[in-house]
């Protein structure tokens, strides 16, 4: 069985984020990148399946931020091969473009299972997995918290969480794309000594891809929520309050006539 | 006549003695060989250097019994039994020799004018020692001391050796007197107790008649007991009698604050199997007498955590006996069952994780066992396998990524300076006399910001030229190393060393004893004697001494002082903090457990980063604040370690001592007084 894991770097929220001069993107100089949490769980889930079934794990990362670090860590955790997908981009593109990039890379390789984080903090709509599955013409299930592969690797039994404390178990025919919410256990810790050993010998594959076409959606403005002036409490009898409110509304020219 | 010249039927006594002697000596030699072969399963480690220093240790701690005497109730009896043993080694060997070779008429100790009285007196002193030690073990029953069959047998054997010796001595004297019939019964040697007993027995004609027979009888019982002891000893916990001198001789001479670096073995970092420990670590198993000093000192054990240094060594011994033989037979370790792995065998995980690395156990161990090095080597393997507490994982991940366990941005390292009306110099950009290495607790822990700022204000007032590293400083790695993450420690050390070497400073100080310990002892690249490394209490004490700081007003608190493990026990800094308190006009009332006996707050060795096991009935910090609060007239527990400050402040609340006891850093008191 061949498993592919797609990972992405996202801004680390430990550092305060700044908006750059264009007003449309984050300031790269103050940015620090970290692997997207759900992607880290996707990798962990793949490694757990590997431990149970002897599957191979391939990790692909878009060459943005400190992607090489994440790939080295993936190798240290036990991934067989890691590949940097180089499209010459400064920041991650939208989900559509990303799905097209990854679809191009994955299509010829015939993976049985493609895992990715169900969402990332810079992509809350969580559409990558679905879009990718559409392009590859494979089934997709998202918000997964557990994956077990069936006999012969023909199917996978996955658990999906619903609000209200319900969990469904679904059978998915493989090959398929799965959007992972969380792995069965938290992502493993890699001791630094092993990480450093791997760094010395790490073979990070690189695959150049065409940068994505111009997208129909473009960022117009990026901004922090505007702070309100605060609230003031009104006191008095209902009649007094009504008068006060009417007065305030009139003051702000919010009354007709 | 020599008692071995009598015949048992057709067989002469000496022939029987030869058979028994050869059998006993053979079993003993075989056993000792086995034990040495078991030790040789361990990795090689050079403990053959600095021989004079090693001999000196044996003189002080074996002949001088220094650590035994820390507990006089048992130290003194042990001293008597020990020296009695040495004397009897001499006397019994001479008895044995003359018994084996009766025709040679070899001179014996009991005929020697000088030695005979000494042996005689020691016979009684040993009995007295045994009486006290048995009273303590079986009646007083101190914690950590087992009432095992082993202990009972050994005590009885030693007692019977003494009794049979004294009786043999007395009856020999009575018999000799009777043989002379009316001539002077005055022996040529003076043996006060033997002679006194002989005098008593002479009053009973029935005994006088059979005196020679009784002498032979007790002589034989004595010798056979000795030979029995010889066989029993290497199978019992009294093996310590053989192993302890070696254990002390081969003990570690390096500074205790310098942990032995982790070694990457075929099986990974640290140790997971018996043969991955060193021979000296294995020797601990034979040297341990299960005296329980370590347990009585261990903060985790005392509050009911599943942590016992004694049990750790005991388990190591059991494992060694259980699996060592199979391993000696040449089966490769990888082919052996899981039981031969220490971690899958008898040593439970929690035993390892609940250690605070306070070193109270090793500091008390009379045979210098190195519990910490064993614990940390095993932790190293657990880290390597990724088998660790989730909270600890989180802390380590943060340390690797942000250089601090709080998971905060490096850029916020100097957040504590907000609220100061001056800005500390940036030691990366301008030369300074003193470099203040803050440590992450003082930087990030909000409760400590006032403490950190109070030192900055003191230094400002005293016009000390100092600077800080701002966001370039990272966790020094003391506790990172002690949880077993050696690779991360090395990474932190490399980065910190590079930053420190790029800065232009003369000397360095820190408020955190953990930082202090590792920078002082584990950063060889930094500190080839180029910089003095001080704890802030040393710096302040020096400033008071030079008159650069003066107490403008006297403080009127009743205070006690808690010695931080990594400042006191590890680095011997006991006086400077007390000198500062004295300079402030404060009288320090000492807690029962102070200085090297100080009781850890429970936060060291990475414990602050781990989950609680839920098995303890209390916390070490609570036990400690209760100890402080129980002192008459003490309102302030003075600390000199940021972790202590946090742990004890918390414990004061949970122990319900709020309003009764306050926790203050030494610095805060200085700031109040100047």
Structural notes for this entry:
The complex is a heterodimer of chains A (about 260) and B (about 675). In chain A, about 30% of the residues lie in helices and about 25% in strands. Chain A is α/β, with parallel strands linked by helices. Chain A has a single domain (about 1-210), classed as Rossmann fold, CATH 3.40.50.620. In chain A, helix 2 (about 65-75) crosses helix 5 and helix 3 packs across helix 4 (about 130-135). The termini of chain A are far apart. In chain A, about 35% of the residues are buried. The mean pLDDT of chain A is about 90. By secondary structure, chain B is mainly alpha-helical. Chain B has 27 helices and twelve strands. Chain B has helices spanning about 15-40, 50-65, 70-100, 115-140, 150-180, 190-200, 205-210, 210-230, 240-250, 280-285, 295, 300, 310-330, 350-355, 360-365, 370-385, 390-400, 440-445, 450-460, 480, 485-500, 515-520, 535-545, 575-585, 620-630, 640-655, 665-674, and strands spanning about 5-10, 10, 265, 270, 425, 430-435, 465-470, 505-510, 535, 560, 635-640, 660-665. In chain B, strands 5-7-6-8-9 form a five-stranded parallel beta sheet. A three-stranded parallel beta sheet of chain B has the order 10-11-12. In chain B, strand 3 and strand 4 (about 270) form a beta hairpin. In chain B, helix 4 (about 115-140) packs antiparallel against helix 5 (about 150-180), helix 5 packs antiparallel against helix 8 and helix 23 packs across helix 24. The model of chain B is unreliable at about 180-185 (pLDDT under 50). The interface of A and B includes residues 34, 190, 193 and 196 of A.
């Amino acid at each position: 069985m061949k498993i592919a894991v797609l990972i992405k770097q996202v801004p680390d929220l430990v550092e305060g984020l700044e908006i750059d001069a264009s007003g449309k993107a984050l300031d790269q100089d103050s940015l620090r990148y970290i692997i997207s949490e759900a992607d880290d769980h996707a990798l962990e889930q793949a490694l757990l399946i590997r431990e149970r079934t002897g599957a191979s794990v391939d990790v692909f990362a878009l060459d943005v931020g400190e992607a090489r670090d994440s790939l080295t860590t993936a190798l240290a955790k036990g991934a067989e091969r890691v590949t940097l997908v180089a499209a010459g981009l400064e920041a991650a593109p939208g989900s559509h473009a990303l799905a097209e990039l990854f679809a191009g890379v994955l299509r010829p390789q015939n993976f049985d299972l493609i895992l990715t984080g169900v969402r990332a903090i810079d992509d809350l709509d969580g559409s990558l997995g679905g879009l990718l599955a559409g392009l590859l013409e494979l089934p997709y299930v998202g918000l997964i918290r557990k994956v077990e592969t069936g006999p012969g690797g023909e199917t996978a039994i996955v658990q999906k969480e619903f609000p209200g404390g319900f969990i469904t178990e679904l059978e998915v025919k493989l090959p398929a794309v799965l959007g992972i919410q969380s792995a069965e256990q938290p992502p493993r810790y890699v001791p630094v000594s092993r990480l450093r050993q791997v760094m010395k010998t790490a073979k990070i594959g690189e695959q150049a891809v065409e940068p994505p076409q111009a997208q129909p959606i473009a960022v117009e403005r990026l901004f922090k929520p505007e702070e309100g002036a605060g609230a003031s409490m009104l006191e008095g009898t209902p009649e007094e309050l009504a008068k006060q409110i009417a007065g305030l509304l009139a003051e702000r020219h919010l009354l007709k006539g | 006549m020599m008692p071995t010249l009598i015949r048992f039927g057709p067989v002469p006594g000496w022939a029987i003695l030869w058979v028994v002697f050869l059998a006993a000596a053979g079993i003993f030699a075989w056993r000792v060989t086995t034990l040495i072969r078991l030790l040789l399963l361990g990795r090689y480690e050079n403990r053959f250097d600095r021989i004079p220093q090693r001999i000196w240790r044996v003189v002080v701690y074996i002949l001088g019994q220094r650590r035994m005497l820390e507990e006089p109730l048992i130290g003194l009896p042990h001293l008597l039994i020990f020296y009695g043993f040495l004397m009897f080694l001499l006397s019994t060997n001479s008895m044995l020799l003359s018994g084996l070779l009766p025709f040679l008429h070899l001179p014996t100790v009991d005929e020697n004018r000088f030695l005979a009285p000494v042996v005689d007196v020691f016979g009684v002193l040993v009995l007295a020692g045994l009486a006290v030690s048995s009273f303590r073990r079986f009646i007083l029953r101190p914690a950590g001391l087992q009432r095992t069959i082993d202990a009972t047998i050994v005590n009885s054997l030693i007692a019977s050796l003494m009794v049979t010796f004294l009786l043999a001595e007395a009856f020999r004297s009575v018999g000799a007197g009777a043989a002379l019939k009316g001539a002077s019964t005055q022996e040529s040697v003076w043996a006060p107790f033997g002679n006194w007993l002989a005098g008593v027995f002479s009053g009973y004609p029935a005994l006088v008649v059979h005196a020679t027979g009784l002498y032979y009888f007790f002589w034989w019982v004595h010798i056979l007991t000795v030979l029995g002891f010889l066989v029993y000893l290497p199978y019992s916990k009294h093996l310590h009698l053989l192993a302890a001198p070696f254990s002390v001789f081969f003990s570690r001479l390096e500074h205790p604050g310098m942990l032995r670096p982790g070694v990457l073995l075929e099986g990974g970092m640290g140790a997971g199997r018996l043969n991955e420990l060193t021979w000296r670590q294995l020797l601990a198993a034979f040297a341990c007498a299960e005296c329980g000093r370590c347990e009585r000192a261990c903060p985790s054990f005392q509050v009911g955590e599943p942590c016992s240094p004694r049990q750790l060594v005991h388990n190591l011994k059991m494992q060694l006996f259980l699996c060592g033989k199979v391993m000696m037979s040449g089966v490769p370790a990888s082919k052996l069952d899981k039981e031969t792995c220490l971690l899958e065998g008898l040593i439970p995980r929690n035993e390892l994780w609940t250690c605070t690395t306070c070193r109270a156990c090793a500091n008390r161990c009379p045979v210098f066992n190195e519990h910490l090095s064993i614990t940390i080597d095993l932790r190293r393997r657990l880290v390597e396998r990724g088998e660790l507490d989730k909270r600890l994982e989180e802390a380590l991940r943060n340390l690797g990524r942000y250089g601090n366990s709080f998971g905060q941005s490096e850029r916020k390292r100097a957040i504590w300076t907000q609220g100061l009306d001056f800005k500390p110099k940036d030691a990366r950009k301008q030369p300074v006399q003193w470099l203040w290495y803050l440590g992450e607790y003082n930087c990030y822990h909000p409760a400590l910001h006032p403490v950190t700022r109070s030192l900055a204000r003191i230094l400002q007032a005293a016009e000390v030229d100092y600077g800080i590293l701002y966001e370039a400083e990272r966790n020094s790695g003391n506790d990172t190393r002690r949880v077993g993450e050696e690779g991360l420690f090395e990474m932190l050390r490399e980065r910190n060393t590079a930053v420190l070497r790029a800065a232009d400073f003369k000397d360095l100080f820190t408020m955190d004893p953990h930082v202090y310990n590792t920078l002082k002892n584990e950063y060889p690249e930094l500190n080839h004697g180029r910089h003095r490394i001080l704890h802030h209490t040393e710096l302040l004490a020096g400033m008071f001494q030079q008159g650069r700081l003066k107490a403008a007003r006297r403080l009127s608190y009743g205070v006690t002082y808690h010695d931080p493990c990594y400042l006191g026990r590890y680095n011997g800094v006991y006086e400077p903090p007390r000198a500062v308190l004295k300079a402030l006009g404060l009288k320090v009332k000492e807690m029962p457990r102070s200085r090297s006996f100080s009781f850890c707050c429970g936060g060291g060795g990475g414990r602050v980063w781990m989950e609680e096991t839920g098995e303890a009935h209390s916390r070490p910090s609570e036990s400690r604040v209760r100890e402080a609060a129980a002192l008459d007239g003490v309102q302030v527990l003075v600390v000199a370690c940021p972790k202590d400050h946090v742990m004890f402040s918390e414990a004061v609340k949970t122990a319900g001592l709020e309003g009764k006891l306050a926790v203050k850093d030494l610095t805060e008191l200085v700031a109040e007084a100047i």
